[in-house]
Design a protein that fits this description.
Blueprint (H helix, E strand, L loop, with lengths): L2 H9 L2 H36 L10 E2 L11 H6 L4 E2 L2 H30 L10 H14 L1
Helix pairs in contact: 2-4
């Protein structure tokens, strides 16, 4: 068997195709969830908190600031001043908690819908099993 035939056989297996579809759907779903968090949830949370919900500008300066350097995070990093920039971490952490909460509720709803489906009826016994049971029952009598 040639290398191309082996690769074709490998690529056409069900598991590989299922994985490929899962990765593509997962990427698209990730964009949807990011949009829900960034465009729908975060503005509401920011409004409730009374302003902007972006902590990325919060930092502590750990070194000496050269004269004439602005007190912004970008300017301090460009001037190579050591900065403890905790704000970006806090923003990402808040986004993660909200995202995890939304995914939790989505999975909870999907599981509830999955349980709502009635269970499939058990398959009927094959005819030979039914016949053997009848023979057994008649022998007992």
């Amino acid at each position: 068997m040639s290398m191309m035939q082996e690769f074709k056989e490998f690529a056409m297996k069900g598991n590989v195709m299922d994985l490929a579809v899962g990765v593509i759907i997962g990427g698209a779903f990730g964009k949807i969830v990011d949009s829900v968090v960034g465009d729908l949830i975060m503005p509401i949370v920011a409004w409730i908190m009374g302003g902007k919900l972006d902590f990325s500008g919060m930092f502590f300066v750990l070194g000496d600031i050269p004269p004439g350097t602005a007190m912004t995070l970008d300017a301090l990093k460009k001037a190579q001043v050591p900065v403890f920039a905790y704000g970006n971490f806090v923003t990402i952490l808040v986004n993660f908690i909200i995202l995890a909460f939304i995914i939790f509720f989505m999975i909870k709803q999907m599981n509830r819908l999955r349980k709502a489906e009635p269970p499939a009826p058990p398959p009927a016994d094959p005819e030979d099993i039914v016949l053997l049971r009848e023979i057994r029952d008649s022998l007992k009598k």
